[in-house]
Specification:
alpha+beta, 4-stranded antiparallel beta sheet, 159 residues
């Protein structure tokens, strides 16, 4: 059972955008809250699980397999979407920065619900597609900035 505050955070996550209130209510029993302390792994790079997570409280670092920080995610953020969508190994590790509460939705349960209710499934997939597009655009902007900086550094006459 989610607290009123955690439920409000979940209801404002991009995962449930456009869902009817009764659809959100039907989704909540599929998952469960999980608590993590600072340094705890929520999931591991190359892990085989495909569960989806919504951060309810606290902050999480997403890290490369070398431990480099990709991004920091906070309340309302959805993590684990790539493995959920393609059933492949995790492409990053998720590590709690301090105390973190997440809502974990088992992949099998959510996929079963999405297959049983195609309209619901379409909205979930559309929301995850929007999330991935947003992350791709952000990554492209960061890459452009890095390339511009690199170009400026190497084209200076101060070398």
């Amino acid at each position: 059972m989610l607290s009123p505050q955690d439920k409000a955070t979940f209801e404002h996550s991009c995962l449930v955008y456009g869902l009817k209130p009764e659809e959100i209510e039907a989704l909540i029993p599929l998952g469960s809250e999980a608590l993590y302390r600072g340094g705890d792994e929520i999931f591991r790079h190359k892990g085989s699980d495909a569960d989806l997570f919504v951060i309810l409280d606290g902050r999480v670092n997403l890290l490369t397999d070398e431990g480099d920080k990709i991004v920091e995610a906070g309340p309302g953020s959805v993590i684990g979407e790539i493995a959920f969508l393609d059933a492949g190994p995790r492409d990053a590790s998720a590590v709690a920065i301090a105390h973190v509460t997440v809502f974990r939705i088992p992949a099998a349960e959510l996929r079963r619900k999405m297959c049983a209710d195609k309209e619901f499934g379409f909205r979930i997939l559309a929301n995850l597609a929007r999330l991935l597009c947003s992350r791709m655009r952000t990554a492209e902007c960061r890459l452009e900035t890095l390339m511009e900086r690199s170009h400026e550094i190497w084209n200076t006459t101060d070398l």
